[in-house]
Amino acid sequence: MKILVINCGSSSLKYQLFDMANEEVMVKGLVERIGIDGSRLIQEKGDDEFIIEEDMKDHTDAVGHVFDALVDSENGVIKDLSEIDAVGHRFVHGGEKITKSCLIDKEVRDAIEEYSKFAPLHNPANLMGLEACEKLLEGVPNVAVFDTAFHQTMPEKTFLYGIDYKYYEEDSIRKYGFHGTSHNFITNKTAEILGKDVNELNIISCHLGNGSSITAVKEGKSYDTSMGLTPLEGLIMGTRSGDIDPTAVTYIMKEKNLTADEMENILNKESGVLGVSGVSSDFRDLEAAAKEGNERAQYALDMFVTRAKRYIAGYMAEIGSVDAIVFTGGIGENSIGMRKDIMEGFEQFGIKIDDEKNNVRGGAHEVSTDDSTVKVMVVATNEELMIARDTKSIVEA
Q1: What are the binding positions for Mg(2+) in this chain (predicted)?
Q2: Could you tell me if residue 280 is inside a domain?
Q3: Annotated active-site positions, please?
Q4: pLDDT band at residue 60 using 50, 70 and 90 as cut-offs
């Protein structure tokens, strides 16, 4: 079975084509600047790169070029689009109505549209990718895999907010959580590595990157997570503020005469480590600036580390016995220093990093000392493979 995985952003599209017989990535690519001058597609097949530079006014155009690249006589990997058996789509928000990956029908589409109010930059773009595939691959099944689905096992005491209950009943205001596909993959991969039944596994999954979230996984299921109604809550991130006193928000709005949309833009795109440092949203740039003595860059890094410690320690108390603390994502997998800084202070609980073992990037590694009371691990995430696996399972069923 060959499965195409599509991940649409507001002006971009990432894709991978899998041969599920051996879960091989046949080809992967990125389309950027959709609807903007300078659109281009970059496709990678092994070490070879294929580029199409042509204006793409919308996601239908973009998907069309993806299909052209897949069947290109010199650079493609299939002879005909009929070789694609199914398409798996990443959707950000399924709310409470979609609790697992599923075939896309009218009910699913209606839920995606309904919860676009909580993911206005993502769900509509995801839908455009779906509509393009339906138009250009008529009759091929489409499967939706939701970032929020993995977190639907959270109990009320962790997903409710401390506001009038009517806002939950009437407006669905609650914590939903995100990065669920990644946390799900990490949970299953960690269970496999440790040789443990996933239903008996307790871990703290730390997906750290430009967007970051930490999830408490109890008995293989999401029990609590740092992101909330939207991906804005939780850790300080590249450009997102993370946790903040709501009164600070209303105060700034009144003082600066800002609209709700303007304030939301500030919190999502002008805050985080970018706002604190004034340097960059890229943690590598911050580390370089901090080494040169930039105090604000150091503040931003310290804030990220401090909040990560706070969530990890809090979740350890919530779920009790913990088998492993797992780092993944761009920062979690690749920043040796960040992992060490985050775990500093956990020695009082008997959890210790081994500096030599921690000198790794990506892959799957145990980086704690032999006598550590809890394993600390680095496990590379693979959201696209998780989407492909779910798609295969659902289509076959």
Answers
A1: 7, 383
A2: yes
A3: 147
A4: confident
The reply to whether 120 and 237 lie within a common domain is: no
Please report which helix (H) or strand (E) contains residue 213, including its range: strand 213-218
Domain count, the chain: 2
Q: Are 322 and 202 in contact (CB under 8 A)?
A: yes
Can you list the alpha helix ranges (DSSP code H) found in the chain? Answer: 59-70, 106-114, 123-136, 156-159, 166-171, 180-194, 246-256, 260-269, 272-277, 283-291, 295-319, 329-334, 336-343, 383-396
Is 282 among the annotated ligand-binding positions?
yes
Tell me, yes or no, whether 164 lies in a domain.
no
Domain membership of residue 152 (yes or no) is: no
Domain residues for the domain of 68 are 2-146
Has residue 162 been placed in a domain? no
104 and 219, same structural domain? no
Asked if residue 251 and residue 125 are part of one domain, the reply reads no
Binding site annotation covers 345?
no
Confidence of residue 177 (pLDDT cuts 50, 70, 90): very high
Is 331 annotated as ligand-binding? yes
Query: Which residues, 6 or more positions from 361, have their beta carbon under 8 angstroms from its beta carbon?
Result: 333, 334, 336, 378
Residue 209 marked ligand-binding: yes
What's the CA gap between 264 and 239, in Å, rounded? 12
Q: Say whether pLDDT at 121 is over 80.
A: no
- How do residues 280-335 score in pLDDT, each as one tens digit? 999 999 999 999 999 999 999 999 999 999 999 999 999 999 999 999 999 999 99
